[in-house]
Amino acid sequence: MKVQKILENKEVIKKASIFILLISFIIVYYQNNIAHQTYQLQYELINTKDMAPVEVAEKKETENSNKTNSVFQIYKQMKSGTSVQKESPIPVSLPAKKNTVATLSTPKRVWYLPTEMGTITSYPTASHFALDITSPRGSSEPVYPIANGTISGIYRDSAGANIVTVTHNIDGQVYTSQYVHLSSYAPDLYIGKPVTINDYLGFMGQTGVATGVHLHIAVLDCSIFDVNDTNCSTLSGFFRYGRTRYYQGFMGLQSIINVPTSWTSR
Ligand SMILES: [Zn+2]
């Protein structure tokens, strides 16, 4: 009888121990989770507060696109006829194809300015990691890729800015250039399309958060929307990485080529 009672007690103790252990695990898990969520919330608040309007708008767009799951979907929506051309650009004669064949005596030039004519109106800061460029031709100014590459993004932020991103692979280093506020897109743009420095992407504009017609161009050494590139696999990642690189002294296009304050030829 006594032995049986002890055995029963042991069974109870064993069950109680397992129960207490389980409860402890649950408490530790939830505490970590709450701490993580609080940290994330604070981080998001700081991020939003520090961001310039375009970036806040684009951050919201990221959140939206996370909801719909991919930029590709936005592109599909765009392709299915929701694309709006806010301004009709005055047709301009596009420049003839340039000879880019390198010879031994002339070093290969890979980077170009994004417009035929331009004036810098704003330089990179921590919260606005980009150059803003205006042109006397306004929304008739075609916007070109700064180097040969592949279209990696065609999308519109929540404020309505038309955006294209081009990813470049230059001597094994990946870069992404982002062209914001376009008044219209060039025809037949699609994600994955190879483009050269002579294939215009669209026309300068003031779609989205912009006080006038200009091009907002950001250049980063990462591969946007690439899940393998944790630096900029998302739009908010792209902005965060831009800030990180800014504090490290990287200035986007200016760090890659010599950008004059204004020009009339690429
Ligand atoms: Zn800008």
Q: What does this 3D model show about the protein?
A:
With about 270 residues, this protein is of the alpha+beta class. The chain has a single domain (about 50-85, about 105-265), classed as Glucose Permease (Domain IIA) (Distorted Sandwich), CATH 2.70.70. Helix content is about 35%, strand content about 20%. The protein has an eight-stranded antiparallel sheet with strand order 8-4-5-6-10-2-1-11, covered by helices on one side. Strands 3-9-7 form a three-stranded antiparallel sheet, with no helix packed on it. A hairpin with a 5-residue loop joins strand 4 (about 150-155) and strand 5 (about 160-170). The longest helix is centred in the N-terminal third of the chain and has 49 residues, at about 1-50. The chain is elongated. The protein starts with a helix and ends with a strand. The model is unreliable at about 40-55, about 65-75 and about 80-85 (pLDDT under 50). Zinc ion binds near residues 122, 130 and 216.
Provide key terms for this protein:
266 residues, alpha+beta, Glucose Permease (Domain IIA), 8-stranded antiparallel sheet, 3-stranded antiparallel sheet, 5 helices, elongated, binds zinc ion
